[in-house]
Design goal:
Shape: elongated
Structural class: alpha/beta
Radius of gyration: 23 Å
CATH superfamily of the largest domain: Alanine racemase
CATH topology of the largest domain: TIM Barrel
Oligomer: single chain
């Protein structure tokens, strides 16, 4: 039989999370962000659950071609734009909208031969300081694009660096939003500002108005919280779109003082049983996941919460069976997501134990892990 580890993608959870996004921003159109192979979930696997979006946003031309192959005829946005001149030919052929964030991309457009003008999202660097035109150069970039026959329409875009919290006692979006509004004040075109955290924290209900023609939900679509630990996924009404489960393949009985795994980071404080689980860092689980005598990483065994012990190795990890004394070989272990018994283990909690975020765990799922829907 195959190794027992398996990831399950929950299509209904994707639909639910998309609906939750629309509740926060009912007047905005939705770019479903599916970059990084849909945050590790698989682009083809999430398509049915997210096809209710108004468009898809991603990075790679091959992912765009995959969406067209799946039958999507609506808008597709390249979030980082094109990387070389010939990419524009594929944009024309696949009818892709694309971001422009530097003068080199405008130069490419200016020499591009096409009968069909392009839809552009011009990016303002409002303070993230990654991609985008600085405020002092933004309007000149807009003017260059506006006279090109290769350009049909220019929309305006920025990205918030701190929408998940506060900066210097003010809302994390306040300074960047002020820059965006000042620089784009009298420019025509649709606006796209809000990422996952901005959608949930700053849009809808009694929250301050954040006008956006297009919103760009990413991790919320997959059921993780963009501002954990301040809010959990359950606080935001989200459902996990991925569950990673395996099984116990062996058990060991420890005496007081026995150690577990490489480096002997766990020493048994009392007699105990542990389960050996078919999951390791070669499956995408965190090697940094703590399993010391003092701290462990949460897992579910037959739906019961317990913790990891010892270091995670390439193919195996070990868990404390004290809370589930009847557990034995073959019992289900949920690494994150929903157990078969219905218990939930939020991916954000697992990630936080290892000093990272849920995004990273999703994206790190290894190719050798079978995925089912």
């Amino acid at each position: 039989m195959p190794r027992p580890i398996q990831a399950t993608i929950h299509t209904e959870a994707l639909r639910h999370n998309l609906m939750r996004v629309r509740q926060s921003a009912p007047d905005a159109r939705v770019w479903a962000v599916v970059k990084a192979n849909a945050y590790g979930h698989g682009l083809a696997r999430v398509f049915e659950g997210l096809r209710g979006a108004d468009g898809f946003a991603l990075l790679n031309l091959d992912e765009a071609a995959t969406l067209r192959g799946l039958g999507w005829r609506g808008p597709i946005l390249l979030l980082e734009g094109v990387f070389e001149q010939r990419d524009l030919e594929l944009c024309s052929r696949l009818d892709l909208w694309h971001t422009v964030h530097c003068n080199a991309q405008i130069d490419m457009l200016a020499t591009h031969k096409t009968h069909v003008p392009h839809r552009i999202f011009l990016k303002l660097n409002s303070g993230m300081n990654r991609l985008g035109f600085a405020p002092a150069q933004f309007r000149a970039a807009w003017a260059r694009l506006n006279v090109l026959p290769q350009v049909e329409e220019i929309s305006l875009l920025t990205h918030f660096s701190d929408a998940d919290g506060d900066v210097n006692g003010a809302s994390g979006i306040a300074q960047q939003l002020a820059v965006f509004e000042r620089i784009t004040q009298d420019l025509p075109g649709e606006r796209s500002l809000s990422n996952s955290a901005a959608i949930l924290r700053h849009m809808g209900g009694n929250k301050a108005s954040l006008s956006s023609d297009w919103i760009r939900p990413g991790v919320v679509l997959y059921g993780a919280s963009p501002d954990h630990p301040e809010h959990s996924a359950a606080d935001w009404g989200l459902q996990p779109a991925m569950s990673l489960r395996s099984r116990i393949v062996a058990t060991q009985v420890l005496a007081v003082g026995d150690t577990v795994g490489y480096g002997s980071t766990f020493r048994a404080p009392a007699p105990m049983r542990i389960g050996v689980v078919a999951c390791g860092y070669a499956d995408g689980y965190m090697r940094s996941s703590p399993g010391t005598t003092e701290r462990g990483t949460p897992v579910l065994v037959n739906g019961v919460r317990t913790r990891s012990v010892g270091r995670v190795s390439m193919d195996l990890m070990t868990v404390d069976l004290s809370p589930v004394p009847d557990a034995d070989i073959g019992c289900e272990v949920t690494l994150w997501g929903q157990s078969s018994q219905g218990a939930l283990l939020p991916i954000d909690e697992v990630a936080a134990a290892g000093g990272t975020i849920g995004y990273e765990l999703m994206c790190a799922l290894a190719r050798r892990v079978p995925v089912v829907e």
